[in-house]
Amino acid sequence: MEQSTTSDNLEVTNPYGSLKLPYGQVSMPVFMPDATLGVVRAVDATDLLDCQVQAVVMNTFHLMQRPGSSTIHALGGLHRMSAWPRPIVTDSGGFQAYSLIQQNPKFGTINDDGITFKPESAERKFHLTPEKTIQLQMSYGADVVICLDECTHVDASYEMQETSVKRTIAWARRCKKEFLHQVNQKRLPPEQRPLLFAVIQGGGSLELRKRCADELLEIGFDVAWRINGSRTPTSTMTSTSSPTPLSPATVTACVAPITHLDIYTTSSRSTIPCFSGLPPSITCVL
Q: Using CA atoms, how far apart are residues 145 and 141, in angstroms rounded to an integer?
């Protein structure tokens, strides 16, 4: 079903919806190149604009180490540092920290407070909490801020997945609280406020994914999303035609274990219907 939505003086007609962000409108689905350290390797902002790239993804885990928060702030934030005039999505860094610790437990620990890690080449430890990741992403000037979550391997035990879901929900609450604090402190008008995304965990368990999704909906986020939940493919999900709270049936469809990306939203600034079916090989699709 094609969806037409009017936001301010801009009309959007897109069967997959769109996101209205501080640095521009993004039509869905969107391919976002990975600019991990603030740049997409081998190209510059002009090249990306010539390729009609709508947005890029950067990563808090890497940015806080190199070039470092002080450098980013001194250069005026991510947009000015990278000379990129369009939206930037910053990942929380949770997956990268999890991967590092999985590689070797000596590199860090994960507990209810947050994640402490020290990469092999680093001179000091880094401590990433739900509050810290929100503070960093907002200070960098991101258009989309992503909550810290605890990642798991899809084959992890049910007990480990359940612990991850509980911790992800608790961290999401803390992220939302800090996000609202930052918005109020900075006195951001609605059109300059970044969107806040939450991440659904639960591995291959439909029950755990639904529990996580229900709790995140209760807390309230602009968008909740997940990627590569399990190895079991499913058919295309139910879609909703307006950005209003989703029905239990739609939530169930959204959290069904699949191998590609699902998104759903209740934000007034996004017109994304529930959708899936994107190729699992395209990992930079939002």
A: 9
